[in-house]
Amino acid sequence: MLLRHAIGHVLRRIRLERRLTLRDLARESRVSVPYLSEIERGRKEVSSEILATVCRVLDLSLADLLGAVSRELGGAATAEADATMAGIGLAPVISIESRTELGAAGGSDARVSAPTTLLLAA
Q1: What is the chain written as a DSSP string?
Q2: d(CA 65, CA 43)
Q3: Average of pLDDT values for 21-40?
Q4: How far is CA 86 from the centre of its chain?
Q5: Which of 4, 74, 115, 29 is closest to 82 using CA atoms?
Q6: Does 113 score more than 60 pLDDT?
Q7: Which of 52, 7, 12 is nearest to 29 (CA)?
Q8: Beta partners for residue 95, in sequence order
Q9: Burial of 8: CB neighbours in 10 Å, binned 0-12, 13-18, 19+
Q10: Would you state the pLDDT for residue 75?
């Protein structure tokens, strides 16, 4: 997923949660309806100035918006990876690693740390 798609998706979701129409947001932010629509659909890269203005109208900090976008991108990456793996017949694999303390041979008090790996397929 591209960054502009994630930004648009999050902006649309927040706008709808605030019960604002695209026309309401355009009027308050002084950005045209067609341009806002293009941003929400991920077709236009939004400038930092426009993004700051839209965030102000939505009563949202830029940090909160970017956090939501980051979560959106993280979820999309996980979903895409799962879909790709399923499409080629592979199940997701989980790797759990730990270290096991082993006593040294010959009765000495020396300890050796050996890696242990467990792979789980869903």
Answers
A1: --HHHHHHHHHHHHHHHTT--HHHHHHHHT--HHHHHHHHTT-SPPPHHHHHHHHHHTT--HHHHHHHHHHHHHHHHHHHHHHHHHHTT---EEEEEEEEEEEPGGG-S-EEEEEEEEEEE-
A2: 18
A3: 97
A4: 21
A5: 74
A6: no
A7: 52
A8: 119
A9: buried
A10: 79
To which residue do tokens 């790996």 refer?
117
Query: What integer pLDDT is reported at residue 119 of this predicted model?
Result: 46
Is the model's pTM score more than 0.90? no
Distance between CA atoms of residues 42 and 37, nearest Å:
9
Burial of 50 (0-12, 13-18, 19+ CB in 10 A): middle
Start-to-end CA span in the chain (Å): 25
Residue with tokens 């096991």: 100
- What is d(CA 69, CA 14) in angstroms, rounded to the nearest whole number? 11
Show the tokens assigned to 56.
């102000």
Rg of the chain on CA atoms, in Å: 24
